[in-house]
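Lecture notes, part 5. Sequence design as translation. It can be helpful to think of inverse folding as translation between two languages: the language of shapes and the language of residues. The source text, in structure tokens, appears below.
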């Protein structure tokens, strides 16, 4: 049996959440996220001891890990009778008996100052070794975020990649009939919790997109006189129109540094891409072509832009430098390509593709190689990436209204997102601070 890791605690603080971090320990159980047919890792997550909210925290952690399809939380009814103590090394033989490869135990307490504290440990059952020992502290109303951070820590330790659980999704909530559709901005946690409307529904809204810090949302508003681009602060609820473009503007998206918005502008019969400085309102035209140029998205480093254009006859994907130079086509697989979006790690571009009457979500490398179709349906569109570049959320309409769905980059995981009402145009935030 290998000795357990020596824990060296370092107290760090980040945006009101503190963590007590363990020294790195080599993981003998590793989840290979790139293996197409990998079996989910059996992990035991007993109810944490301590404060009444402990059972809810345990449930959120379990749901997060199960939802990734990389982990299989085991049935609590099979657990050993004696609950684990976070301060004591577990009886590994008892957990081996139920085929648990990983064990996550923890304790939830309330400090004298009213703060909630989660202490937890992740164990490799068969190696008899601690892999992780952490502590998170925050105010009691942040208990769900604390649970997501625990799940993120476990995910990262066992996969080697950042988690995505402590994030939010903004989207267009759709209600009413087809002739009287109400479209409002709504925001929720990635697991569907804490949904909240950001706009009233008096005006139709489309294509919300987060800024890099996930605090602002840029979106299009359709008005009787045309359309406009707005920026809304999700913390204060304050919003304002940006730019002064006559006619139609659409598909706004922030630059990675948050200083500009790139968008499509219809002017003199052309639809071209412009950037708008949020500091001084100045604009720069990036394309000058009689075709429709739209759906722009920056690369993560801000040096390039992917967009779709019908300049070659039908919608295709193109990449250009951020100043509009070196435009070159990257899609050659047949069909109509739209709504491209660069993955946060820069390795992929996700897109919507139509072949005949069928729509797909697909991915390809930024040079156009390695195209892979992940979904097929009556109408799949509008992909957005999780911050770890593993999952894609999109809108699916199977003939009875649009809903949010999820697919992973391998195509192995395909399921509805945890929001069962009408929705479209999702945008996934980065990890919250």
């Amino acid at each position: 049996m290998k000795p357990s890791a020596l824990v060296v605690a370092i107290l760090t603080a980040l945006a009101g959440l503190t963590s007590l971090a363990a020294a790195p320990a080599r993981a003998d159980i590793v989840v290979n996220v790139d293996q197409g047919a990998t079996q989910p890792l059996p992990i035991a997550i007993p109810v944490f001891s301590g404060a009444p909210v402990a059972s809810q925290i345990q449930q959120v952690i379990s749901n997060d890990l199960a939802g990734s399809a990389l982990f299989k939380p085991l049935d609590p009814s099979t657990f050993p009778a004696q609950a684990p103590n976070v301060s004591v090394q577990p009886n590994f033989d008892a957990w081996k008996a139920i085929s648990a490869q990983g064990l996550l135990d923890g304790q939830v307490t309330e400090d004298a100052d009213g703060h909630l504290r989660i202490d937890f440990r992740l164990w490799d059952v068969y190696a008899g070794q601690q892999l992780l020992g952490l502590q998170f502290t925050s105010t009691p109303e942040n208990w769900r975020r604390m649970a997501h951070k625990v799940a993120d820590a476990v995910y990262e330790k066992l996969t080697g990649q950042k988690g995505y659980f402590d994030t939010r999704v903004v989207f267009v909530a759709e209600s009413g009939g087809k002739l009287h559709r109400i479209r409002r901005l709504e925001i929720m946690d990635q697991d569907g919790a804490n949904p909240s409307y950001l706009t009233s529904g008096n005006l139709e809204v489309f294509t919300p997109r987060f800024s890099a810090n996930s605090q602002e949302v840029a979106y299009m508003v359709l008005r009787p006189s045309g359309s406009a681009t707005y920026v809304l602060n999700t913390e204060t609820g304050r919003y304002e129109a940006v730019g002064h473009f006559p006619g139609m503007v659409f598909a706004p998206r922030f630059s990675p540094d948050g200083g500009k918005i790139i968008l499509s502008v219809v002017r003199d019969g052309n639809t071209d891409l412009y950037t708008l400085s949020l500091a001084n309102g100045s604009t720069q035209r990036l394309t000058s072509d009689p075709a429709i140029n739209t759906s722009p998205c920056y690369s993560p480093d801000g040096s390039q832009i992917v967009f779709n254009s019908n300049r070659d006859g039908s919608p295709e994907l193109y990449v250009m430098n951020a100043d509009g130079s070196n435009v070159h086509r990257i899609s050659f697989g047949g069909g109509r390509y739209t709504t491209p979006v660069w993955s946060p790690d820069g390795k992929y571009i996700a897109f919507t593709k139509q072949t005949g009457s069928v729509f797909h979500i697909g991915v390809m490398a930024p040079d156009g190689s390695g195209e892979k179709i992940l979904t097929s349906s009556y109408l799949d569109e509008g992909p957005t990436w999780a911050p770890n570049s593993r999952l894609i959320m999109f809108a699916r309409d199977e003939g009875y209204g649009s809903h949010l769905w999820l697919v992973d980059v391998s195509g192995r995981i395909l399921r509805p997102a945890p929001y069962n009402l009408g929705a479209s145009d999702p945008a996934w935030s980065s990890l919250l601070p």
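The translated text above is only one of many valid answers, since several sequences can fold into similar shapes. The longest strand covers residues 129-138.
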